[in-house]
Amino acid sequence: MATIAHCLFCFDVLSASLERRQHLSLPQVQDLWSRFQSRLEKSGQRGLAVDEANDEEEDQDIEDSADPLSDSDHDNEELSSEGEGPAVETAAAPSTLRLPTISRLQAPSPASASTSSIPSSASASSSQFGFEDNSSKASSTTSIFSFARRSKQPSPARREEQYPLFVTWNTISSRGHKSLRGCIGTFEAQDLATGLENYALTAAFDDTRFSPIRSAELSTLANHVTLLHTFTPCAHPLDWSLGTHGLRISFTYHGRRYGATYLPDVAVEQEWSKEETVISLMRKAGWTGRSRDWSAVADLKAVRYEGNGEGCRWSTYRDWREWVDNLVTEGVKRS
């Protein structure tokens, strides 16, 4: 199950990369987030942090306001192994499903997406962590890691969790408008620590629809993690449920193999019927035929799956990270 701690880990990985420091491990983040929540609960403030994090989940329907039918260009770059569209190998069973890195939906052009929703003063809050003070950065990072190593480690079973996953970055404007800033994932099961780290950075820096995320944008960001599970071949392309299943399709067109996917929440957010969703996916993959002819496309196959998602904003990460820094400072003073 995706958790806020997973999102905080993605934030720490991204900010550490931009600040050229070492990030905390996933087990460390999970333990420190649990302790932070316990502290808030004792002081009667836990609901504030949870409500703020849930705001990102509730606003998720805003992130894909662009026409998703234009996503084929980026998908082709990420997936193509032959032809003009993304190649999808059809598996005999869900356990054998494998697909390289893919993007979720197309958004406005990189120029509009990176300028219209990112305030020029976005770097203001980063100084609250002492990130701008290079002289203190090394000692602060060392102290945090010295403290975090003493944190309770999860059980081996917890460390071995593996899921296909997606990491999404959005920017939130001063008016509260959310815009997609990067979203990349994989259908290949990943160890959570490794997968979240890799795709947090890949979605931030290598989504070719956008320019790489900059340090100045950190305070405008929201993160969303989706863990995928229960992959089942469909009896036919409409053999799935709106609001429950994500859909992955593959088909042959002009002698070449194409494929695309939508996460479980997309069709509901866009208010599509199941047929409209399939047609949109086919367009996304590169199909240019008439809509009424979609069912006649050769060898059209579909796999349904489910996903569990969680999200949080920079402000949640900022508050938690400040608490971690203060905890370390207090520990150093006592010693």
What does this structure look like?
This protein has about 325 residues and is α+β, with helices and mostly antiparallel strands. It has eleven helices and seven strands. The protein has helices at about 5-20, 25-40, 45-60, 70-80, 110-115, 135-150, 155-160, 190-205, 265-270, 275-285, 315-335, and strands at about 100-105, 160-170, 180-190, 220-235, 245-255, 255-260, 300-315. Strand 2 (about 160-170) and strand 3 (about 180-190) form a beta hairpin. It is elongated. Mean pLDDT is about 75; it is low at about 55-145 and about 155-160.
- Please report the total strand number as a whole number: 7
Strand order of the largest sheet: 1-3-2-4-7-5-6
Percent in helix = 25-40%
- Quote the distance from N terminus to C terminus: 38 Å
What coarse outline follows from CA principal-axis ratios?
Answer: elongated
Largest sheet: 7 strands, antiparallel
CA-atom Rg in angstroms: 21 Å
With helices defined by DSSP (H or I, 4 residues minimum), what is the helix count?
Answer: 11
Strand content: 15-25%
